[in-house]
Each structure stands twice: as C-alpha cells, then as structure tokens.
Design a protein that fits this description.
The chain is mostly helical. It has one domain. It is built from ten helices and no strands.
Amino acid sequence: MAKLGWMEKWTLRFAVVALLFLALSGFEGMLMRSQQYDIDSLHGMETLLNTIRPGEVEPTTAELYYAMLTAHPIVGIYGFVYMAIFGAFYFLVPFLIKKPVKHPKLVIANFWLQIIGVMTCWAAGFFGLFNAMYTLYWPLPVAFDRVPLLGSIFFMLGAAAIMVNILLFSFNIFKTVLSKDNSGSYTLGQFLRAAFGIPRLMKLFGKEDKNAVNLDYNGMPVFIVAVARGSIDTVINAIVLLTAGSGCIALQKCLLVGSGYGGRWKCAHLHCRRMVSACSAVNWAATLWSKCS
C-alpha cells in the first residue's frame, strides 16, 4: 500500500475537520428544531450554560435561540464548506498543474486559523450571546439594545481571523498557479484573462484565432480557471468584510472608552453605538454617508 504524502495528509485533515463542523452544524440545527417543537425543551441545557456565561443578567429563551441561529451558518459555511474547499483545492490545484504548493507553511496556518476563527464566532454566539442573526446583512444594522457588546467584539475578531485566512489561502493558491516551477507556467495576465473570459470575448469579435488550441483558457485546466473566477469574488468579499470588521473593532473600543467616562463623552458614546451598529452590517461607509447627508 502506497504511503500518503504530506499534502494528502493535510487534505484528509481538512476533510475530517470539515465533517466535524458539519456534525456540529447539524447538531445545532436539531437543537433549534426541538425548540420550535417545544420552547422549553432545552431549559436544562440553558440553565447549565448560563452558569458559565459572562454577565449577570440571565438571557431569555428567545435570545439563546437567536444566538444559536446566528452561530449556525458560520459553522456550516466557514467551518464545513470552507475547510472542505481548502483541502480540495490544496490537493487538486498542485495535482492538475503539476506544481508543488508554493508556501507549505501557509497550509498549516490556514488549517488552524480557520478553526480558531470559526470557533471564536461560534463561542461568541453560544456563550457570548451574539444574537444579531440576519441583521448582520446590509441594510439591517445590529440592534445593540439586545446584542451584548462583549459577544459582538469576539464575533468581529473571529470573523476578521476567518477573512485574513481566506486572503492567505487565496494568495497561496495564486502563487502556486503562477510559480515558475516547471514549463507549464502562467503569467498573472494570462491568469486574469482566463478568469474573466477575455479570450472568449476576443474570439467572439474575431480578434484571435478561433482554431487555436485551448484558446479560451490559455492552456490552463478548466478547474484552475474556475478556481480563479471564484477566488476573485471571494477575495473581494474578504477584503470588504475584513476592512468593515476592523473599523468595527476600533469603534467598539471607542464605545467601551466612551461608556467609562462622564457626560462629556456621552455624545461620542452614542455616536459610536450607531456606527458600530452600521459596521456590523458590513456597510459602514454607506451608513456613514447616509448619516452625513
């Protein structure tokens, strides 16, 4: 029996952890479904969790439910789906283009940073009661009269870790595809042209040889072109989420500082509340514009 190589082992680790996140997401789904059937079905578990949660005010059953509902898609998407994608891409991309991963240490960093980020977001919901649910999305701001500040900060930190990790992963994949490790190397221009379908558009207008071999993809495997197209959108999303989240963390600190002083800080304190609320919706700039206009 052939022994697994280093990359194959890490691919399996990504796959195993992805399945564990899927199991956790499914378990949360069953818990929420049981609450819909009987609102008091999880009373014993809630009582136990309240003993280790920060804060003195005991949350309501509705707050606990929506906190779980907020953490649920994070575990399912960034835990299960992204871990599976990381593992698959780290195996298939080098295999198809016959090149080793450019930065092997980033593979290990991607593995652990994704786990840390997802579990931080999960803990912010499950234990920190971050229960913003779908008010995270534009144009619905987080209502801080019912969302705990501490849970919000940890959720933003976890989300920032996830976005940084996605950018590191995309950088490693791009560097692997564009590396000069063998004769089948591609330039950045070829990579982007293939990703945006420029050769196909040029062929449509008769600007290139229609009979050229692999004209549409510059000789790249179709899977690599698909990776490029999907990664560009992912990178843009990660940058937007990361920059919005970073601004939000800074404003959260402003909120903490403002709440610790007297009346002269009251105006700044209330303004920070509004801005943090908007930032959690990943539309801080748009909301700032609306407030100034």
